[in-house]
Amino acid sequence: MEKYCKRLIEVDLPIKKISEHSRREKSIRHGHISTLHIWWARRPLAACRSVILASLLPDPADPDCPEEFRKKAFELLRTAKENLTSSQISDQALQRTYAGLSQIKLPDAHLPPTTYNLQLRKALLDFIADFSAWEMSTNEVYLKIARELVSSAHIALGGEPGTRPLVVDPFAGGGSIPLEALRVGADAFAMDYNPVAVLILKVLLEYIPKYGYKLAEDVKKWGEWIKKEAEKELSEFYPKDADGSTPIAYIWARTIKCEGPGCGAEVPLMRLLWLAKKGKNSVALKMTPNKKEKKVDFEIIKGDLKEKDVQSGTVKRGSATCPVCGYTTPVVRVRQQAKGKGLPVRMVAVVTAKQGQSGKSYRLPTERDLKVVELAERELEKRKKEYKGELSLLPDEVMTGKCCDQLPSYGMPKFGDLFTPRQSLALMTFVNVIKNAKSKIEKETDDSNLAKSIITCLGINLNRIAVYNTVLGTWHITRQIATNCFGRQALCMVWDFTETNPFGPSFSWDVHLKWVYRVIQQAEKDRIKSEATVQNASATKQPLPDKIVSAVVTDPPYYDAICYADLSDFFYVWFKRTIGDIYPDLFRNILTIKNDEIVVSPYFPNKDKKFFESKMTSALLESNRTLSENGISVVVFAHKSTEGWESIVKSMIDAKFYVTASWPIETEMPNRVRAAGTASLQSSIHIVCRPRPQDAGVGDWREVLSQLQPKIHEWMPRLSKEGIVGADAIFSCLGPALEIFSRYERVETASGKKVELKEYLEHVWATVARESLNMIFAGADASGFEEDSRLTALWLWTLHSSVNNVSAKANNEYLTDEGMEEEETSPKKALKGFYLEYDAARKIAQGLGAHLEGLGGPGGIAEIKGDKARLLSVSERRKALFGKDEKTRPQRRKKSAQATLFEMPEEGQEEVGLPSAGKTVLDRLHQAMLLFADGRSEALRRFIVDEGGGNDDRFWRLSQSLSALYPSHTDEKRWIDGVLARKKSFGF
Question: Which residues contact 702 (CB under 8 A, 6 or more apart)?
């Protein structure tokens, strides 16, 4: 292997602090780049900033680290600390700077060289940890230190004086990585295959750094002009109320005709009737059946409303229940009624606000509201007839892909179908006014590129209006705001939706413009004055010379997780109509090009695992080609399936990279609904790699395997210390495992047979499973438990990082406020059991010496359906565990209060019989849990004490372990803790 100086990221990274700041950043809004324009799975700036800085700086403790870098790093930190003393502190920013620098402990110059260098490494890592905080990203002192460190490292590692290191992101997407490269003082090259992404990148990385405050003020000026011009044409369609209140949102419900015998009433399809959940100031709708007119009448109810005070919604899982006759029209018939022109709609409520008064008011729609809507419909038809243009007035492009495959079933095959007539009228008016502004801006602006920048930002604001003004956005009842149509990474069917007023005080053109303005303003605080180079290019054909790149840091597509092209078409059709003429190369097609997008998609027969691996390998080979001799690469990946991971890892190795480190950084919110009951990752794994040398040689299979277990054994406690557990920990072990395998050109057995990556990964999953189990049963011999106990413990541990942080309350609140009621996509409020991808479950079981299929039959602990495997809930095992004794289960009286850990559920008539003790420790523990759940206190005592169930020490050790693994809101957690609470009283 070639000699090189390791970078900081190859030896250590303060992942706990970086994760903390990355999670916190999700709640930061004003000025954050995520508020400029929607882009999916954008990486937190904190993680990107830390990873890039650690990738560019050499490790001071490495023997090959240039001495001039060590001296410069020490001097920079020492000078900053000395120049900033407590007596100088006068404002909050300085206080934060002083607090951060004071925590960085510099090495003593008299220490032995090895100790000195290790302490200098620690000081640099502490600096990176502190710099990852949002408020430190604009701190003048920290920015100066970071940039001088990067400059010094670049020159010390062989860079030409006067140049800066080049950081490349071939899958730049939302721009987090190249933006942070600019922040730390590197040059950045950002490319993306998607034209919408390229436009966002140009604004973020070219226009804003170049024009900064000037661009912000011009966008504000012309944005106000556009609002005034549009309001002249549209004000009559958004009138104020007689009392001076302004309607800010109109709530609509789709309707069907009840198919109950002899009914035929109009049924408004509503998920729920709440309008505002705000304690004593709550608001809801109340339905009263009107049999004479075959419809329902609404009224507004207010006050300290409880759930019992508010009626249930009319639609569930796509089927609609008629409030007039009670008949439920099944989802199939609902879809049938929607075919063709879609479902009719009915306005059910209006949200208003009054100048000078806080809060929102709710009222029923008036005759005037309905007449204005009819007026807008007539005006739209008139303009359609008068329109003459190259593109259709409203987007008539057909939606494609998985992200919107529900909508054609409900009469919405085209993008133009996503808007009501009034929404369409408003959007087309803004489009026209922006186009009129274009010529004026070009005339009044000397710099043609600045004019282009202004117009582009105005086009972005049109997209912000569009995304909040569709028939797919809902009303958030706790926050009392309109939600956009991308609450998920898809365009999902909703039954009741919100139409916003583009001239109101809450969701208007100028309110959206403020968000754009703040992002541009932030550039002044960021002090980023250099521009990146942005190109619309494929990662498989990178327009760069060989060996010029210092670092490739990229966040490629996550296998089949997100189809960016399909999603971005929503924006593409509007960009094409507003600013497409100034970007003819980006918007020359009907929709975004999808054939070569590197994702796995069922909508393209060729886009399978083989396609993904082949294209990703080509992209990574290109990155390998462009990296300098001393270059480094970081690939960010997060996917819950072993299949997705195996594909990206194979691509990296086939692209002649070898892994030198990997770091899990928590980038996802733990309470997101996708995490509930499944192995969704909270962490993104940052895999560090370098081009494999030509003389890498052949590895011995036995030697490789002999190093695997010690490597994982060493890594797992570090992960546990950093709070990385479950699926996050499992996939985080891939890096250390691949350090062993990928350093060779190939690995062979003693007979000369080449070992394929897939075979090695089977050993990796098995080793990780065994090491994880040893951690779960700390201090005990896990092999003493039967295979069902071992698999249950590891299954729950794999889910632990996701489900243990998600409370039932959080789940239900999310579903109540924003959940989609479409049957194929709606998450369940109460998922039974615990889900894993089948392949992941199989490999975990295999690693424990268990057989998943054998544990899935009658009386088993698991169920396999398609590509999912489910660990059964304890209650589902009742019949198998109790058998004929189930008939003696007591009839429980209604509970007056919830049971606690130290109080049995209210007891019924105690019976004489006990269940026959199960065959395994897990069976017996589940039986005890069910006895506790039934309130059979005497039976529980006899089962554990008299029948000897508690004499087996494994019973209590398994109880203790599973108690720590069951999610806190589950029945299993309460039941097992109830059993454990009686251990001492039972004499154990």
Answer: 750
Measured distance CA(494)–CA(315) in Å, rounded = 10
**Mean pLDDT, residues 275-299:** 94
- Report the alpha-carbon angle 356-357-361, nearest 5: 140
Q: Using CA atoms, how far apart are residues 422 and 424, in angstroms rounded to an integer?
A: 5
Residue 390 burial (CB count, 10 A): 7
Q: What is the pLDDT of residue 726?
A: 80
Query: Could you give the CA distance from residue 867 to residue 840 in angstroms, rounded to a whole number?
Result: 10
User: Residue type at 943?
Assistant: F
Burial 918-939 (b: 16+ CB within 10 A, else e): bebbbbbbbbbbbbbbbbbbeb
Q: How confident is the model at residue 801 (pLDDT cuts 50, 70, 90)?
A: low
Number of H helices, E strands in the chain: 29, 25
Residue-level length of the chain: 988
Q: Which of 344, 413, 402 is nearest to 373 (CA)?
A: 344
Spatial distance between the Cα atoms of 112 and 718, rounded to a whole number of angstroms: 27
Helix/strand/coil (H, E, C) string of 715-738? HHHHHHHCCCCHHHHHHHCHHHHH
Strand pairing class (246-257; 274-276)? unpaired
Name the 3-class secondary structure at 461: helix
Burial label for 128, CB within 10 Å (0-12, 13-18, 19+), is buried
- Residue 839 is given by DSSP the state H
Parallel, antiparallel, or unpaired for β 246-257 and 266-269?
antiparallel
Domain locations along the chain: 1-161, 211-235+392-526, 241-385, 879-981
Helix pair angle (421-444, 208-234), 10° resolution: 130
CB atoms within 10 A of CB 297: 12
Q: Quick one: DSSP state of residue 309? A: G
- Tokens describing residue 121: 């490494």
Model pLDDT, residue 884: 61
Three-class SS state of 236: helix
Phi, psi of 976, rounded to the nearest 5 degrees: -70, -35
Confirm if 642 and 681 have CB atoms less than 8 A apart: no
Q: How far is CA 255 from the centre of its chain?
A: 33
Q: Of all residues in the chain, what percent carry a pLDDT higher than 90?
A: 61
In angstroms, the CA 148 to CA 672 distance is: 39
Tokens representing residue 448 in the block? 């043609």
Q: What's the rounded Cα separation, in Å, for the pair 360 and 481? A: 10
3-state SS assignment for residue 929: helix
Model confidence band, residue 816 (pLDDT cutoffs 50, 70, 90) = very low
3-state class percentages of the chain: helix first, strand second, coil last, to nearest 5? 50, 15, 40
532-571 residue pLDDT tens: 999 999 999 999 999 999 999 999 998 887 889 999 999 9
Res 779 pLDDT > 70 = no
pTM: 0.88
The whole-number average pLDDT for the span 207-220 is: 94
Q: Which residues pair with 58 in a beta bridge?
A: 7
Mean pLDDT of 765-793: 81
455-492 residue pLDDT tens? 999 999 999 999 999 999 999 999 999 999 987 888 99
Residue with tokens 């949102």: 249
SS3 36: coil
Query: How is residue 222 written in tokens?
Result: 């012309």
DSSP state of 87: G
* Rg (the chain; Cα; Å): 31
Across 128-154, average pLDDT: 94
Average pLDDT over residues 578-596: 93
Decide if pLDDT at 200 tops 60.
yes
Shortest CA distance to 113 belongs to which of 74, 83, 86? 74
> Six-digit token pair at 153?
């490292």
Per DSSP, the three-state class of 897 is coil
Q: Are the C-beta atoms of 254 and 821 separated by less than 8 Å?
A: no
